[in-house]
Amino acid sequence: MPIYEYEARNADRSCPSCGAGFEVIQSIQEMPLSACPDCGGPVRKLISWCRAAIVEISPVHAGVEKQIPEYEKAGMWSHAAELGDKHAEKVEDKATRQRAVENYAKAGYDSATLDKHLDLSAPAFFLATVLLVIGAWTFAFGEESEKKLPERYISLSPEYTGVLLESGNDISIDVTVRNGGRRGENLNLEVTSIPEGWKAWVKTYSFGITGVHVASDKSKSLTLRVEPADDAEVGQYRIGIKAVTEDGALSSAGQVTITLEKKETEKKVGGVNIVTSYPVLRGPTDGKFEFSLEVANKLDKDSVFNLTSQGPENWDINFKPAYEDKLISSVRLKAGQSQTVAVEVKPFPWADPGQYPVLVKVSCPEAAGEALLNVVLTGTYRMEIGTATGLLSLEAMRGNDANISFFVKNTGSASLTNVQFLSFKPENWTVTFNPEKLETLGVDELKQVEVIITPSGQALVGDYSVGISAEAGKASKTLEFRTTVKAATAWGWIGIGIIILVMAGLVALFIRLGRR
User: Which of 66, 176, 297, 498 has the most neighbouring CB atoms within 10 Å?
Assistant: First the structure.
């Protein structure tokens, strides 16, 4: 007569017998049990792991493949499964192992244990056997300690016996119910005391409960949900809760003291951390300033944080995700998560140089944080250059100096320093400036500069381009002068004389030759 193992399908509806598992001696012809003999709860049939781990050497080993079909034909599924399982263990045949599992299923063994059984390799079988032996030893010696438990004992204890609650909020408190006796207990639960207008009940997951089954030497975690009255005043309130056994023989009570506090009219600063590596940026008025903020959620839950700012009038302040161009006004952060947010600041074009504060606020219903940023404007860097008449042309003689003057004006909002002059000229020409450079040029200040252009002595008569550039760091301007090179007047008369002499010679030659 083989021994079969069973265990409860639902631990919450088990008794000490089926909750820990039990064995039954049955004939292979009998149907598997579906209910516990003690409590009637549903049970399932398990595989005995030690049987699968024992390797037997039999003289009929060679005829295993023949015996398995014979057992199957006779409906002896358990025999066929065990024989095939042992044979597959010896020869490492996966097909025979699968066939054994199918026969176990036909014999009524639980499908969940069959899946685990199929995945176990030989080393895993050995380990399972060792663990089973250790478990049996623990169980044998554990029975003695179990006997030391009292016949019946229950306790109910809230996790927190005193809590602070802000007006207008609800609260959930964990409650532990323990059975320290040797038998399972069905416990009735009730809220024994509650302030007028308040609501309180025991729940688990998403539904309320009035009773719970707790197995021997086990505990259950429940939730006490409390909703204060809308008009509840500041003060202390007590909620009582009680657990009673089904027969009323045992009971255990607990109490929670709730201190109701006045709701804060303003958000508490905290719960969010804001860090920036560069809180002060410096640059011109016509530039853009981008700050990088690391926003961290210090709450114990996910929250959506709103992003707002306060800055100087007519300034453009926007929030963006790091390395992205889209604009945002809020950011969702998980509990303990942090994210980088960029703050882009564009000053008013006519803002004066100086330091301007920008206050950034990050807030949600439960928390708020602030960060103070500073923009230092150095002003704008602009200049204009030109001539008093607006003409950009001059005449020059070969090898002789030609003078022309131009002005440099600071049209920005910041002073210009070290204004230097450069020239772009034809080969062998010279260009000089007086003065050679300007040390400073104040806002709206204008200064005159003289430039001397000297064409090459071998320059041909014609028009040439000479470029003049004024540079002062971030500001620069360029002028282009059209320079007309002319020859000296004496050379013109000499040329005319040469032409007249040539023509006179030709006339004399024609006359002489014509007489012949």
Answer: 297
